[in-house]
């Protein structure tokens, strides 16, 4: 299991980070100033979110969480929303529209506790069986935006950036200009390979350029360790190389599953979850105009599970 901690980045910003690259252990961000607090994302379960909120209460006991920003609608970033339901919950229009397409907590609980008789069920049991999804009421955002949105938390200015489709159908980053900090959500991973749910690998690369254009020096990814500009650049460049390789195979007519195997061999490196490269290859094939490319959540999970199983 993961051991999370609240890491101070400046007098007004903190990162909630995990020592695990396993599925489901997501990072969060906190901005607190003059009795107000903004929380970037919640956690996968109610228990994990309560642990996060207890840590916040210990670090800034005089601050009240008045705003929550959801970077996207995957459950590991939103299923704790009900515990901060009195706050305004903000995300992009594209992110909010994707809410109905997510697997529910009950569905994921059933899948991760089923008999591991197929590649998908075995994968779900292995990676999600440790979580307790009981009692969760999915709590949607109460406010949406497009482009960018400027807010103040006490006397601290923050800017929300609508990154568009990339990791998900609609990704949001949070920039704290005076501290040079960006909380990226799953537009950025560190220590593990990225999942591309949106079908656009090009947009994933573009999102990295948007993050770098903020001028920030500290980047808190959705999963993994806090990184810097060099880390974002390396992440972007790796995605670009993967896209070039997968696109070349698509244009040659190579079967997608075979390309995924070849891309995994070339780019797995020492990063966790190389099977996620299946989703990047599928996105590249889709953008190259290939037919019958897996696109639904189940199809993409099935592709990852089969690649992981060899």
Please tell me about this protein's structure.
With 310 residues, the protein is α/β, with parallel strands linked by helices. The protein has ten helices and twelve strands. Helix 1 links the parallel strand 4 and strand 5. It is globular. The two termini are 26 Å apart. The mean pLDDT is 96.
Low-confidence stretches: none
Helix content: 25-40%
Structural class: alpha/beta
Number of strands: 12
Key attributes of the depicted protein:
310 residues; alpha/beta; five-stranded mixed sheet
Report a brief summary of the structure:
Helix content is 37%, strand content 23%. It has 310 residues and is of the alpha/beta class.
Map the helices and strands.
Layout: E1 5-8, E2 13-17, E3 28-33, E4 36-40, H1 46-59, E5 64-69, H2 75-78, E6 88-92, H3 93-97, H4 105-112, H5 119-128, E7 143-145, E8 148-153, E9 156-164, E10 171-176, E11 181-189, H6 201-213, E12 218-223, H7 229-252, H8 256-267, H9 277-287, H10 297-309
Parallel strand pairs: 4-5, 5-6, 6-7, 11-12
Antiparallel strand pairs: 1-2, 2-3, 3-4, 8-9, 9-10, 10-11
Helix pairs in contact: 4-5, 5-10, 6-7, 7-8, 7-9, 8-9, 9-10
């Amino acid at each position: 299991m993961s051991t999370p901690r609240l890491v101070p980045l400046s007098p007004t910003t903190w990162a909630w980070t995990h020592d695990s690259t396993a599925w489901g252990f997501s990072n969060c961000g906190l901005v607190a100033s003059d009795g107000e607090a903004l929380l970037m994302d919640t956690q996968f379960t109610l228990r994990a979110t309560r642990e996060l909120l207890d840590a916040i209460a210990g670090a800034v006991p005089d601050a009240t969480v008045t705003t929550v920003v959801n970077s996207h609608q995957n459950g590991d970033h939103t299923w704790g929303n009900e515990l901060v339901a009195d706050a305004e919950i903000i995300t992009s229009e594209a992110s909010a529209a994707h809410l109905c397409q997510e697997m529910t907590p009950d569905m994921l609980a059933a899948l991760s506790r089923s008999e591991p008789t197929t590649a998908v069920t075995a994968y779900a049991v292995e990676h999600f069986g440790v979580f307790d999804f009981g009692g969760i009421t999915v709590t949607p955002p109460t406010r949406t935006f497009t482009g960018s949105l400027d807010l103040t938390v006490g006397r601290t200015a923050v800017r929300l950036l609508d990154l568009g489709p990339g990791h998900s159908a609609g990704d949001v980053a949070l920039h704290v200009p005076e501290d040079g900090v960006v909380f990226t959500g799953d537009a950025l991973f560190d220590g593990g390979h990225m999942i591309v749910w949106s079908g656009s690998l090009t947009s994933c690369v573009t999102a990295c350029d948007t993050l770098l254009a903020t001028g920030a020096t500290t980047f808190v990814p959705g999963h993994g360790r806090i990184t810097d500009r060099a880390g974002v650049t390396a992440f972007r460049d790796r995605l670009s190389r993967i896209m070039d390789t997968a696109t070349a195979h698509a244009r040659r007519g190579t079967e997608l599953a075979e390309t995924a195997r070849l891309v995994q061999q070339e780019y797995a490196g020492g990063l966790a979850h190389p099977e996620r490269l299946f989703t990047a290859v599928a996105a590249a094939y889709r953008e190259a105009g290939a037919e019958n490319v897996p696109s639904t959540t189940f199809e993409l999970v099935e592709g990852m599970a089969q690649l992981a199983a060899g």
